[in-house]
Amino acid sequence: MSSVGWEHFHHDADIGVRGYGDTLGEAFEQVALAMMAVIIDPGDVQARCPVNIALRASEPDMLLFDWLNELVFVMAARNMVFGRFDVRVDESSLQLAATAWGEPVQRDRHAPAVEIKGVTLTELAVRRLDDGRWLAQCVVDV
What we know:
With 142 residues, this protein is an alpha+beta fold. The chain contains three helices and eight strands, in the order ββαβαββαβββ. It has a single domain, classed as Archease, Possible Chaperone, Chain: A, domain 1.
């Protein structure tokens, strides 16, 4: 089994997204892919347009919350979808520097399933697992 990956998890009203990685940045990349997969197939997105994002938070959980909400905002404001992420997180200062790679939405090709309204605090968690990997998860409002 790969140490890096993503999955959806059950939530009664909305959709849970979860990412795993050997580093905090990898877990944030994977949970962002999980969130994109709620909307579209990330593999169908051409990584043509880079969008740089820089954030800082006082807690890892809130850094995840801000990261995913920033992606939701950028998707709506720029009418874009993303299929690749490069995320670096300084664990001591909780500064995030990321590039999201994507393209403008093409409804015929991307066939968006839903619109994510926002990221919630429900089941928000960022932690190291017993096997040393990082877990990043939350529930998104659709």
